[in-house]
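[job 0412] stage=complex_fold ligand=6-O-phosphono-alpha-D-glucopyranose status=START
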Amino acid sequence: ESAEKGGYEHFMIKEIHEQPKAIKDTLSPRLGVNNEIELDNIKLSKEDLEKINKVVIVACGTAYHAGLVGRYAIEKFAKIPVETDVASEFRYRDPFVDDKTLFIAVSQSGETADTLAALREAKGKGARVLAVTNVVGSRISREADDVFYTWAGPEIAVASTKAYTTQLVAMYLIALNMGIKKGTISKEKYNEILEELKTYQQKVEKLVETKEQIQELANRQFNNQNVFYIGRGIDDHVGKEGSLKLKEISYIHSEAIAAGELKHGTIALIEQGTLVIALATQEHLFDKMLSNIKEVKARGAYVIAVAKEGNEEIEEAADAVIYIPNTLDELTPILSVIPLQLLAYYIAVTRGCDVDKPKNLAKSVTVE
Ligand code: G6P
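[job 0412] stage=complex_fold status=DONE, emitting structure tokens
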């Protein structure tokens, strides 16, 4: 096993380091010289897309969080209404799905029982089913009409890292492909986003190297009983993933909330020393995030902010800032999740937890 870890202490940290390559492997085979996206053999022609009036994304755990970003990307670039739901709940609301629905199941393993059951339900109602999965030949890949494979390579640690970032890449590629075919995104914007995505191998590499700063923060912040993640827009989706990572492997109770919801309850739990991770990467939401940071600071919170390089204003408001490389606001989740993965990892290590095999959790859940 230690040979498989390639010199790393745990699979999780090894897999965090594998993300630049996993992102490249998922992205580059799909991109032509003029940025045309080749979605493997997925049959989503212009005519097919014109028929689709709704997209439903269903998944569990980390894959669900990728699905939330998928909703944002598809609505923004392809202008189709999207619902994202957790697979275990999807069936209970007698979902409105028909032959005009594109159903996207996101699953690293391709074996999750709830996701498979949701897929069958949607298929039974006539939906076109696209699977986004990391495992070739998995059950979900076999039952779907089309498959987009994330090329993350085998993921061993229970807490998902490289599968998530490649799922995000998949979501962006699917959304951009739909958008350019439908004509709902301009060629300029499409190229701008893809050119930026191409820099992500290098940007993620650079980010992983900030691990010492994060390790230091973890050394000081490992003993909290509660940790809150706040953000707005796609930052909120990333907060949810960061919070899940922390609770999965460190056993610290944590919660992620849309920052605007703080005042409706959670702020009552903020007291002297409470750790709050504030994601503030979205320019158009920055002022509102700044007010949220001030609100929790006023109640004694210790705030670690995640922001884009060059943002100095945040330094006055937060106790510590983790910078991500400058990038397009639409794409930040692929970058901003990296420090949150590292923070969860180092906090869990400091607490002496079994990082790769957390108690009560399984890599793939094949029971409903
Ligand atoms: C389990 C794993 C998670 C994963 C979830 C969904 O809970 O521990 O890491 O996100 O299942 O798994 P899937 O294979 O469907 O993505």
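The radius of gyration is 20 Å.
[job 0412] exit 0
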